[in-house]
Amino acid sequence: MPRALITGVSGQTGSYLAENLLARGWEVHGIQRDDAPDPAIPERVVPHTADLVDFPAVRRVVDEVEPDVTVNLAALSSVAVAWARPLEVAQLNGTAVANLLDAVRSLPDRPGARRGFVQASSAEMFGQAAESPQSETTPIAPVNPYGASKAYAHALVGAYRAAGLRASSVILYNHESPRRPEAFVTRKITAGVARISRGEQSELVLGNLDARRDWGWAPDYAEAMARIAQSLTEGDTASADFVVATGESHTIRDFVAAAFAAAGIDDWQHLVRVDPQFVRPTDATEMRGDAGRIRHALGWAPTKTFDAVVAAMVAADLEP
Ligand code: GDP
């Protein structure tokens, strides 16, 4: 039974990934920041306490667990928040990954043990990409502190791979679900639309409505990472970078329209207001990914359309 160690296990993608690997029969360990039991961590995950920026504490967990595959999903994951906390984002998304990689590389070899490492990279590394869709070979040119921190970690994973570690960077595009916090625009919209339909909120106040993003279903992205983890325990196929995306892009305005439609509200234009407070200093015009490599290597494909993602999130937020 392979053993995984997941950082960020209480987050949206970490919790779906833990459930996915447990269903595959894996033993799953997770790193959490506080001692208190976290209800967001799936049952049967073995919890370990360490702050990712407490480097010796993280190394102790890695040494104790001796994972076959370590998956790094811990991050300050909001671009909006990263502008306000650039040092924290550099430490948590950047140097903490160096520590984790070094801890995994330092594990003693044991017969049959194949150490793997999976890093959650981000489409934000491409910045204002000159080409669309983007792929694993698109130049990396971030335009915000979040993208810059992810670019550093991405480069580092490449270096450890070149030095012999079985390591994969998964370049994730926006992935959404009812577990998405409201700091992200999709959940802000679906939770807001649900409150508007119940008469608890009068309007949606948003930023840039014209940006185009490639929005997928978070459990599909967890499935992609699970396939990579599985493959890393079996051979070198997955020791590479992989874009995980749907290949389609839609504007934030499209998302708003689909969310109101899913809630049965036809006349919604007067319910949406733009406030400069939510407009970012820089914002990529279009992010759209080409997932051809992972489709060919591991047979992965998204299972939900854009409309189905929006409808599932609105339905969950409308539940009493
Ligand atoms: P990100 O792509 O990881 O930064 O995910 P977000 O969901 O935070 O942002 C996605 C897009 O929505 C970006 O282009 C934002 O500029 C845009 N956006 C527009 N209004 C809002 C808002 O009110 N909140 C957030 N978080 N993003 C917004």
From TrEMBL:
Its recorded reaction(s) are: GDP-alpha-D-mannose = GDP-4-dehydro-alpha-D-rhamnose + H2O
Cofactor(s) the protein needs: NADP(+)
Give all residue intervals belonging to the NAD(P)-binding domain: 5-313
Q: Which UniProt keywords apply?
A: Lyase
Where are the coiled-coil regions?
none
| InterPro entries documented for this protein | GDP_Man_deHydtase, NAD(P)-bd_dom, NAD(P)-bd_dom_sf
- EC number annotated for this UniProt entry: 4.2.1.47
Molecular function in Gene Ontology: GDP-mannose 4,6-dehydratase activity
Does the keyword Lyase feature in the UniProt annotation? yes
Enzymatic class? lyase
Q: Which GO BP terms sit in this record?
A: 'de novo' GDP-L-fucose biosynthetic process
Q: Which residues form the signal peptide?
A: none
Q: Its function? A: Catalyzes the conversion of GDP-D-mannose to GDP-4-dehydro-6-deoxy-D-mannose.
Q: Which named protein is this?
A: GDP-mannose 4,6-dehydratase
Identify the species of origin: Frondihabitans australicus
